[in-house]
Amino acid sequence: MVKKQAYYNKGVQKMIDRYLFPAIFYPPEQDGLDYCVVFPDLDVATQGENIQQAFDMAKELLELTLYGLEEDEEKIPAASNPSDILLDYQNAFISLISVYMPIIRDEMAQQYVRKTVTLPKWLNDAAESANVNFSRSLQTALRLKLNISNPPGHYKAKKKT
Question: Is pTM, for the whole model, over 0.85?
């Protein structure tokens, strides 16, 4: 079984489970406009129609950005101290956004990818007439071939002792 390294940044830093980054929220200047949310440390932004949606979008953006940086083995910058961030807009405010990465990593590992498979016609015809689920059959065959019983990164809640 091929395991993803538990390190990123070319083996220098360990993956972190929880991140906390400051986000700058810019309220709309007039009705009908969206809240804008910027993560100055990551140079990414999102928006939301209202404050709740803006917070939800900010959390999702932070999760996906950090996951992408981990997957690409790129350096994740240290989060700024919120008191060091200068606000350039009168009604802007800073909020800390927290994400727990083990759950995100697990969700991303469970995503499905589409594969094109070439089969002899006779085998395809026989499988279709037997109502074979091609995806499940391929997954089962690959797990047997690779001796894999559980998906990698399968998140399990820890039991209290």
Answer: no
Distance between CA atoms of residues 58 and 133, nearest Å:
39
Q: Strand order of the sheet with strand 18-26? A: 44-48, 35-39, 18-26, 93-100
Taking the CA atoms of residue 73, residue 74, residue 75 and residue 77 in that order, the dihedral angle to the nearest 10 degrees is -120
Q: Which of 60, 57, 51 is nearest to 91 (CA)?
A: 51
Q: Identify whether the C-beta of residue 20 lies closer than 8 Å to the C-beta of residue 82.
A: no
- List of residues 6+ apart from 78 with CB closer than 8 A: 41
- Kindly report, residue by residue over 20-47, the tens digit of the pLDDT: 999 999 999 888 899 999 999 999 999 9
Give the whole-number percent of the chain exceeding pLDDT 70: 85
- Whole-angstrom Cα distance, residue 33 to residue 27? 9
